[in-house]
């Protein structure tokens, strides 16, 4: 279906083959390339559509079209709405380089209306997940904070406050990654702006007291994220978690069936302190306390005392799938459990890139391997060792390397089946089945032949992790 974007069209639905609306004759392609195929939202400021980009034939990823169509006729409110819509485009252009923030593809005016075209994030928002799956447990809250605090750090480092953090504006991708959306309320942190009282923007249930007075600061986002956690822990409206008569939060009264540790409670209390001076002043400070809590309570993370096994003879155990960097390994676990070796190999490449903060670049270099987290390397390896019954895994490869009498990469390649008849395999020649030689997988595309340094760097990193 192709939707006409004329807000006054009485019959907006058309066939995908049409170029002009059969009812009002409006062109169906924005900028002669973007086609709206499904309505996904409508509010006081405009409409949102799922769309395709007919100029980018190589991309199968859908787009989102945001059409600015405010319902208000009041001059000051209309002008403010126009400014906010334009500001969202500027913010997304600045922030869209982060993998957990939607990318902006286009911003333009056509037929008197403003449009944003941005990345489509497939998945449910946290409000929908709460409704479908029920209240969040402590481990899920730790994962949420661990996953989103680095994103907020990225935003704040660029002198921007989101100002509308709530469950509806956090989407869980199909791979479990959390994405922060809707920067329409975001505000630049300039010196002048910090001294001015602005318009009250945000969702009343979640915004900090100073934001109600139009004076949002960095810790206002921390407050909103904390209140979001309270709502997810209890399933109760934040309005009902605060006692006006006692002038205090009473959220613990609603945790009878969902107890949490004292330490997480203290972190949340400091995030939602109504006085700015008693609240966390930066996301890094929250993350520091959170990581200390995660490490102390090993049920939420791999214990730092656990090491990468020195050889494949070590009895494998599955780690808890939360890393200090907030990386989610459940998709890799599920692929390995299903013995989908090729997809698991591809997922491993992406996870290593993510752990080394090079997922945008798409490959690793020598220095990147030196910076790989031991914890993330450990989790990936243990999953491979577990589900392959010690047949595949980095530590299996490491053990094979250690056992070689003459340590060179051709000998190693012969042992694991990567080097055959005097030639290194191409990536497409890798055997993604359990019949492959022991240690054949994982096989990263960037360390065959000319890039064999990648394997050497990995083994050196594993030795360094074992030495800790």
Helix content range of the residues, please? Answer: 25-40%
CATH superfamily of the largest domain: Transferase(Phosphotransferase) domain 1
Strand content: 5-15%
Q: How many domains make up the coordinates?
A: 3
Count up the helices.
15
Structural class category: alpha+beta
Number of strands: 17
- Indicate the overall shape: globular
CATH level-3 fold name of the largest domain: Transferase(Phosphotransferase), domain 1
Q: Using the coordinates above, name the CATH class of the largest domain.
A: Mainly Alpha
First-residue to last-residue Cα separation: 59 Å
What is the mean pLDDT? 81
Largest sheet: 6 strands, antiparallel
* Corresponding CATH architecture of the largest domain: Orthogonal Bundle
**Strand numbers in spatial order across the main sheet:** 3-4-5-6-8-7
Low-confidence stretches: 190-196, 297-319
Looking at how many chains there are and whether they match, the oligomeric state comes to single chain
State Rg.
26 Å
Description of the structure:
With 468 residues, this protein is α+β, with helices and mostly antiparallel strands. It folds into 3 domains: 2-119, Phosphorylase Kinase, domain 1 (2-Layer Sandwich); 123-298, Transferase(Phosphotransferase) domain 1 (Transferase(Phosphotransferase), domain 1); 330-467, no CATH class. It is built from 15 helices and 17 strands. A 6-stranded antiparallel β-sheet has the order 3-4-5-6-8-7, with helices on one face.
């Amino acid at each position: 279906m192709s939707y006409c974007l004329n807000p006054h069209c009485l019959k907006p639905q058309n066939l995908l083959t049409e170029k002009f609306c059969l009812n009002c004759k409006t062109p169906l392609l924005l900028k002669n390339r973007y086609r709206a195929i499904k309505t996904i939202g409508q509010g006081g400021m405009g409409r949102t559509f799922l769309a395709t980009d007919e100029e980018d034939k190589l991309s199968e990823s859908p787009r989102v079209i945001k059409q600015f169509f405010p319902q208000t006729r009041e001059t000051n409110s209309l002008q403010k709405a126009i400014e906010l819509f334009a500001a969202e485009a500027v913010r997304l252009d600045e922030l869209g380089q982060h993998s957990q923030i939607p990318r902006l593809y286009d911003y333009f005016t056509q037929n008197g209306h403003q449009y944003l075209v941005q990345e489509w994030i497939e998945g449910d928002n946290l409000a929908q997940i709460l409704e479908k799956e029920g209240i969040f447990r402590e481990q899920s809250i730790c994962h949420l904070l661990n996953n989103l605090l680095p994103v907020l750090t990225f935003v704040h480092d660029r002198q921007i406050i989101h100002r509308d953090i709530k469950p509806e504006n956090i989407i869980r991708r199909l791979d479990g990654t959390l994405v922060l959306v809707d920067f329409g309320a975001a505000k630049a942190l300039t010196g002048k702006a910090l001294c001015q009282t602005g318009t009250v923007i945000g969702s009343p249930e979640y915004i900090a007291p100073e934001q109600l007075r139009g004076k949002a600061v960095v810790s206002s986002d921390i407050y909103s994220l904390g209140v979001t956690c309270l709502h997810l822990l209890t399933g109760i409206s934040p309005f009902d978690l605060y006692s006006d008569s006692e002038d205090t939060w009473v959220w613990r009264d609603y945790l009878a069936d969902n107890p949490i540790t004292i330490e997480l409670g203290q972190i949340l209390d400091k995030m939602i302190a109504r006085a700015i001076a008693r609240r966390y002043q930066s996301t890094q400070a929250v993350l520091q306390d959170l990581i200390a809590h995660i490490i102390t309570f090993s049920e939420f993370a791999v214990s730092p005392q656990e090491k990468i096994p020195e050889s494949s003879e070590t009895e494998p155990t599955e780690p808890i799938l939360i890393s200090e960097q907030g990386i989610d390994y459940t998709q890799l676990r599920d692929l390995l459990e299903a013995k989908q070796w090729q997809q698991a190999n591809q997922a491993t490449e992406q996870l290593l890139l993510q752990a080394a903060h090079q997922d945008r670049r798409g490959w690793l270099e020598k220095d990147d391997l030196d910076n790989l987290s031991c914890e993330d390397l450990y989790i990936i390896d243990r999953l491979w060792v577990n589900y392959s019954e010690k047949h595949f895994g980095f530590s299996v490869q490491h053990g094979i390397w250690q056992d070689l009498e003459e340590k060179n990469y051709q000998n190693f390649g012969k042992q694991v089946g990567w080097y055959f008849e005097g030639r290194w395999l191409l990536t497409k020649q890798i055997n993604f089945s359990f019949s492959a030689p022991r240690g054949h997988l994982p096989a990263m595309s960037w360390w065959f032949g000319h890039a064999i340094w990648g394997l050497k760097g990995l083994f050196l990193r594993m030795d360094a992790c074992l030495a800790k």
